[in-house]
Amino acid sequence: MEHQLSGESSRESDVTDGERSEESAEPTRGSEREPVTFGLSGLRAGFLTCVPIALGVGGYGVAFGVLASQVGLSVAEATLMSATVFAGAAQIIAVELWTEPIPIAALVVTTFAVNLRYSLMGAALEPWLGRLSPTKIYSSLCLMADENWALTMRDFRAGNGRGAFLLGSGIALWLFWVASTILGTVAGGSVGDPNRYGVDFILVAVFVALVAELWDGRSTLAPWVVALATSVVAAELLSGQWYILLGGLTAALLEVIRHDG
Amino acid sequence: MTGSGTVDLLALETPFDGALSLDPLVVAVILAMAVVTVVAKTGGIWLVRRVDVSDRVQAGLDVLPGAIVVAILGPELAAGGPAEWGGAAVVLVVMWRTESILLALCSGVAAVVAFRAVV
């Protein structure tokens, strides 16, 4: 009953017949070569896993809505932003920059800079997502946020091969994000600080849980120490979210240099 | 239309007039933000799929997930205090003992709220 709509990949070498012989060619990723399917069961698993977390993300959506209405965005405008941009940190920073006249260049450049970390996160999903069709890859990535990236990474590493997990979890986040934005803009300042309920800790908790699973013995230590040191220093020195990008890149660079001695 | 006091006042009296207003410039800026966000989200995988990735670069890509997670967590925890560190420890322990992410998250958030009330 598995909805195996697309186990195929856009890379010719991976098409069913060739798959078995190709597997041994990549020793470093041997354990990650299970088939990746894209179907309703994965979509539903992603959606259901993410609903509790999406509820918490809704706390930020309310906060964003309140901020957006304070700088003069209408309910329709704020909702449009949440529905199309769908990037929490970037949106909150954008409404903090929002003045009259609108600083267009600063808004667009800042949004890109804040979201650049997603390039790295998307690339990290390539071993699994890369085997789906371009339409499935890119539509899933449009609904990628920090929370569902973490959950999807976890699901892929568990060997479930559910290619639609990212999209399903993204849909859950999107629904709650848009709905809570409307709530925030309509309710305005009458909603209290969501951090009272520990909402600000949810993302940290998701990543702490992931850290436990991504630990892969001694080989993980050096790149993690480099990522940690770089990100902590960069967060002190630079504004915005460059520290995530820098931490990830320096660790990757270290591995590229260390490779084969 | 945006940001002026008169519009805010009108929005209060007749909610639907103000609430549903869409300023063309605001819409254009929002759509531009959406476009650069999609480029940022899809650009990385697009590049990796296009470029012939050597074993050396692959080794770098393989450490990305852990490195990104650590890079997000490090400054976040460094900026926190005992309550956040305690909460993180609770998540780790519950995750390790039960392997249930939902249980780990709920215990962690509850612990932080409790710790913050005490500390």
Automatic annotation (TrEMBL), chain A:
Q: Extract one GO cellular component term from the record.
A: plasma membrane
Pfam families assigned to the protein according to its UniProt record, in alphabetical order = AzlC
Is Membrane one of the keywords UniProt gives this record? yes
Provide the topology term for how it sits in the membrane.
Multi-pass membrane protein
TM regions (residue ranges) = 45-68, 80-98, 104-125, 163-185, 197-215, 222-244
Positions with biased composition (Basic and acidic residues) = 1-23
Q: Which residues lie within the region annotated Disordered?
A: 1-35
Biological process terms in GO annotation: L-valine transmembrane transport
Instruction: Look up the domain of life of the source.
Output: Archaea
Any idea where this protein resides? Answer: Cell membrane
The UniProt keywords, alphabetically, are: Cell membrane, Membrane, Transmembrane, Transmembrane helix, Transport
Q: Family, per the entry?
A: Belongs to the AzlC family.
Q: What is this protein called?
A: Branched-chain amino acid ABC transporter permease
UniProtKB/TrEMBL annotation, chain B:
| Name this protein carries in UniProt | AzlD domain-containing protein
> What InterPro entries does UniProt report for this protein, alphabetically?
Brnchd-chn_aa_trnsp_AzlD
Q: Which Pfam families match?
A: AzlD (PF05437)
Q: Where are the transmembrane segments?
A: 25-48, 60-80, 100-118
**What is the organism field in this record?**
Natronorubrum aibiense
| Lineage, highest ranks first | Archaea, Methanobacteriati, Methanobacteriota, Stenosarchaea group, Halobacteria
Q: Which UniProt keywords apply?
A: Membrane, Transmembrane, Transmembrane helix
Q: Has UniProt tagged this entry with the keyword Membrane? A: yes
